[in-house]
Design a protein that fits this description.
10 helices, binds zinc ion, two-stranded antiparallel ribbon, elongated
Length: 202
Amino acid sequence: MLKFVIYGKNGEWSLPDPMDDVTQNAWEQVSKFKIVPDREDRVNWKIEKNKAFSIRSLYYGMAPNPIKVVWYKLVWYKGYIPRYSFIVWLCMKKRLLTKDKLVKWKVIDSDLCSLCGRGKETHFSCNFSQGIWRKALRDLGFDKPTYPLNREVDFFLRRTSGRSSDSKARKVMLAATINFILRSKNEVIFNQNSLSEEQVWG
Ligand SMILES: [Zn+2]
């Protein structure tokens, strides 16, 4: 194909008159590449340093703003508990059902938090959730104020990099806490049973 459109020995393009703007644009792009007539064509995958193609690099290459997911290490790790990790994964992806979504769909009228009854339902940032979270942190030996989940994720990522048993215990604890909070919420919604912080985390 290339042979037909290359003109002259200098490898200039000799492209037919474009039939429309799109083709014109394409020709302009194509003309930026200089052809070396005596050399064989080679495909180089520029995105990867080793020029090897992979689906992963294709994905990141095509995404205009590749979003680096940092939290996956807190969800999937050696010895993770599938049931827990699945919930954590939904939580990180912000796929857990919250009342504001149900209100938008007109399934319910109020988006008041099921756990504390104050303010909008936001997973893990209300007083009740933070209370549970504080207890979990205390059990792990961390004496610190509690923050919204994205900050806690960052805190945990910095402290779970190795393969030590501490590191694993922290990840399991994070997953367990998220699960306990969610379970307390379901208890309120489905069984009208409000649990105290002590009942959830002694
Ligand atoms: Zn709340």
